[in-house]
Write a structure and sequence with these properties.
Structural class: alpha/beta
Number of helices: 16
Order of helices and strands: EHEHHEEHHEHEHEHEHHHHEEHEEHEHH
Strand content: 15-25%
Number of strands: 13
Radius of gyration: 24 Å
Strand order of the largest sheet: 3-4-2-5-1-6-7-8
Length: 431
């Protein structure tokens, strides 16, 4: 499954309209498509036929919550199908969103592996769909980071306007950070110019985008002009390409976009005053990303993984563990384990002891891990933070964990530990 994020941190650039119409166009060509509404405003859900006043209890938020708690997810859980008033309209699967996603974004800030929760959610659909389209939130935060971490490619809808042009540097900075630290395989599919007009300002900024980025980033030849039929199609919950196929915004299919690099001259001094950042300032090469990346994602044998020394949480063979084992047998380990190198050889598990145990019971030989380069105290803090939200933790386990974390935090701040011995050696580790 190829995952494409439709993203721009500026609102009103046509992300939702692009996502929906591209999903319909791909479906008409015979591809299996899943659209994900990853914006708390839920505009894509409305476009797909979900009334704004309807409070759904199965959305992308519920999938993220289950993933964060390592609970198994049903095969088509939270997946709906687009409605439409036209019988000939193609039906596309989508996962809706609502305002609960905004609240969950705040809760994500304390979770381990928070940047890859969406990626873990979507991995179960790899064999069910050919394309996954993510309608991203117009912001720079954890939601955008999750979308970029889950995507193979990104399409950037951009208005030919001054503020959209200047805001491009913020988006490309976020993309570069994700490429370096989380998703080295992320690629920019192209910049899509939307809501273009036959004016000097619009022509100037269209030309400036192409001349500045065209030699290194795919700038789609096709431009989507401003047209009232787009708003009418949204009001009728119909894709523009089916609502009025003869309109200017519908007869320019995104699938047939080609690359070109025209350089247009500036119209006047005022327009030239708004300069775009250089592409070299925002994107680095693959070699640079590998050198600068502090973490590494790789696949290792289970025999090289070892429990965290002094791990205060017991791994229980209960009903929840059996469900996790069954889920891993069917879908594999959806969320990478977090580990660090040991001086004695192999890797020490920071996060993922239950997944490690379940993988052993499921008969796996290897799992994917994220290798982090951190010291003992930071490892303790990350280990506690990633496990303290588990269900069924005893008060004694919580007390031990908080004591370890407090001691590590004091040492990081330069304060002496209240205990003479290292806190990590006080508690036994559970396999």
């Amino acid at each position: 499954m190829k995952t494409i994020a439709i993203a721009n941190q500026k609102g009103g650039t046509g992300k939702t309209t692009t996502t929906y119409n591209l999903g319909i166009a791909l479906t008409q060509q015979g591809y299996r498509v899943l659209m994900v509404d990853f914006d708390p405003q839920g505009n894509l859900s409305c476009y797909c036929g979900i009334p704004p006043e309807k409070d759904l209890d199965q959305t992308i938020t519920e999938l993220l919550m289950k993933t964060s708690c390592e609970k198994p997810i049903g095969n088509r859980e939270c997946v709906y199908q687009t409605g439409g008033r036209k019988e000939a309209a193609a039906r596309v699967d989508f996962i809706p969103s609502n305002l609960r996603l905004a609240g969950f974004e705040l809760a994500m800030s304390t979770m381990m592996c928070r940047e890859v929760l969406l990626k873990s959610c979507l991995e179960q659909y790899n064999n069910q769909y050919d394309y996954c389209l993510i309608d991203c939130s117009p912001s720079v935060g954890l939601l955008l980071t999750n979308a970029l971490a889950a995507a193979n490619e990104i399409i950037i809808p951009m208005q030919a306007q001054p503020f959209s042009v200047v805001g491009m540097s913020q988006l490309t900075s976020s993309i570069a950070n994700v490429q370096r630290k989380i998703n080295p395989g992320l690629r920019v599919k192209g910049i899509l110019l939307t809501m273009t007009e036959h004016t000097n300002v619009s022509d100037h900024y269209c030309g400036q985008v192409r001349s500045t980025y065209g030699n290194k980033i795919h700038v789609f030849t096709t431009e989507i002009p401003r047209n009232v039929k787009v708003q009418e199609s949204q009001a009728n919950a119909e894709p523009t390409i089916l609502y009025d196929p003869k309109s200017n915004s519908a007869k320019r299919p995104i699938l047939n976009l080609r690359r070109r690099y025209p350089a247009m001259a500036a119209k006047n001094k005022f327009l030239n005053a708004m300069k775009m950042p250089s592409i070299d300032d925002m994107f680095s090469s693959e070699a640079d990303r590998q050198r600068e990346s502090g973490d590494l994602v790789t696949e290792v044998p289970l025999s090289e993984l070892h429990p965290f020394v002094g791990h205060p949480f017991e791994v229980r063979d209960d009903e929840d563990m059996q469900k996790l084992v069954d889920s891993i047998r069917e879908n594999g380990v959806l969320t990478n384990l977090t580990v660090r190198l040991r001086a004695e050889g192999g890797y020490e598990i920071i996060s993922g002891h239950r997944r490690f145990h379940a993988a052993q019971r499921a008969g796996l030989d290897r799992v994917k891990v994220q290798v982090r380069d951190i010291d003992d105290d930071q490892a303790i803090i990350d280990m506690v933070d990633s496990n303290i939200q588990r269900e069924h933790i005893s008060p004694m386990e919580k007390a031990r964990a908080y004591a370890m974390r407090l001691d590590a935090a004091q040492r990081k701040r330069g304060r002496p530990s209240k205990k003479k011995k290292k806190q990590r050696k006080l508690f036994p580790s559970w396999e």
